[in-house]
């Protein structure tokens, strides 16, 4: 028996994956094969598209666009810029928290306790930031390699017109900063580099004595020296990266670009001064531990 349009309508109720069914015959008769998503109109055969097929094709299209964006140098630079912004915001927030050591142990110990109260969320944020660092450095290395491949022969005249020391050594400084971050986490977060940290008692409010931990940690000249070196390279990295970020956004105005570059350098060295003020104050004896080990 040949199904009618009414039979086709009932079949659509049992097979919702069919998007549309149209009948162009005057008698309204058609042949419908729901398993194959095909409808026969007289002597012609038409294929319908299921919702799942449309969704899959849309997902594949989005994946192709993202893959093309990632493979392009512009896409890599944009990702480097975005991850850079995330890390800069963290650096600012981290500095504001650490500077509380100058207000006394209650401030810095209370700030540290608030962070620990976040529980698993705190480690999720740390892992997210660490992933941002790795992605940032990895794409920076890829961009450097692509630039080398685009210019296989070195310049005969190696006078650098616009390139600075920071821009020429972005990869190396980034790798050293990554090593500094890993050591910094092992030193003050996991506390596996100094056994004295385990001997510290809680303060009168029941908080871990981060104040004394930082003092004892930076009393080591080698630790403070590596800390200052890492921050110096970070400042160089930021002094170039901040101006490169605006260039990635297309802000190449002759008057605006130098001002942005100057602002980026000032910002980077203000961060350097803020961070290094802590170990310097500790080594000079301005900040002393509240506990004696």
Helices, strands, pairings?
Blueprint: H1 5-14, E1 31-33, E2 38-41, E3 44-47, H2 51-71, H3 73-98, H4 105-116, H5 120-150, H6 165-168, H7 170-189, H8 210-218, H9 221-248, H10 256-283
Antiparallel strand pairs: 1-2, 2-3
Helix pairs in contact: 2-3, 3-5, 3-9, 3-10, 5-7, 7-9, 9-10
Strand line-up across the major sheet: 1-2-3
CATH architecture of the largest domain: Up-down Bundle
What fold name goes in the CATH topology slot of the largest domain?
A: 3 helical TM bundles of succinate and fumarate reductases
Structural class: mainly alpha
- Characterize the largest beta sheet: strand count, sense, and whether it forms a barrel: 3 strands, antiparallel
Radius of gyration over C-alpha positions, nearest whole angstrom: 31 Å
Bulk shape = globular
Report the mean per-residue pLDDT as an integer. Answer: 77
Q: How many domains, as an integer?
A: 2
CATH class of the largest domain: Mainly Alpha
**Uncertain runs with pLDDT below 50, 5 residues or more?**
1-5, 11-42, 44-48, 155-162
Number of helices: 10
H-E order? HEEEHHHHHHHHH
Q: Helix proportion of residues, in percent?
A: 55-70%
- Cα separation of the termini: 96 Å
Number of strands: 3
**Beta-strand percentage range:** under 5%
Q: Quick one: CATH superfamily of the largest domain?
A: Fumarate reductase/succinate dehydrogenase, transmembrane subunit
Protein model, in words:
- It is a single chain.
- By secondary structure, the protein is mainly α.
- It folds into two domains: 5-54, no CATH class; 72-283, 3 helical TM bundles of succinate and fumarate reductases (Up-down Bundle).
- It is built from ten helices and three strands.
- The chain has a three-stranded antiparallel sheet with strand order 1-2-3, with no helix packed on it.
